[in-house]
Amino acid sequence: MPKAVENFILFLFGGILYSLIEVVFRGFTHWSMTMTGGLCLVILYRRFSARPHEPMLMKCLFGAIVITSLEFIAGCIVNLWLGWNVWDYSGLMFNIYGQVCLPFSVLWFFLTMPVIALTELFGRRFSELKLPVSNL
């Protein structure tokens, strides 16, 4: 399967999953978070697939950094620049411009664990769909 198709599937799945998590815990979501979630899963899948034997601790740290960074970028665009006020963490401890905060970064660290299992599942499914290579 071409990587572009894999990335598209991952992007859709990540965006939908991220949005569902937000709806369950917050009651609503925003399309910008769907895009952010999709991008997160593509990046994490590519990293974890390239380094399958990397320790869990390092994968979780990488996941927390990627998700927090992408949320910060999205927040700066949709909240600070465009003024859409999608979220505001300014009331939470250790926040940066109200866009990201330490408590959520810790949450992303732990939520990366099931994402690792999800990326492994996708990797198996994608490899099953690859066409066999002829030795001609």
A few lines on this structure:
With 136 residues, the protein is mainly alpha-helical.
Structure notes:
The protein is an all-alpha fold and 136 residues long. It has one domain. The protein has four helices and two strands. A two-stranded antiparallel sheet has the order 1-2. The radius of gyration is 16 Å and the shape is globular. The model has no long low-confidence stretch (mean pLDDT 94).
User: What string, H for helix and E for strand, traces the elements in order?
Assistant: HHHEEH
The outline comes out as globular
Radius of gyration: 16 Å
Structural domain count: 1
Topology, pairings included?
Blueprint: H1 3-26, H2 31-50, H3 56-81, E1 95-96, E2 100-101, H4 102-129
Antiparallel strand pairs: 1-2
Helix pairs in contact: 1-2, 2-3, 2-4, 3-4
List keywords for this structure.
single chain, about 140 residues, mainly alpha
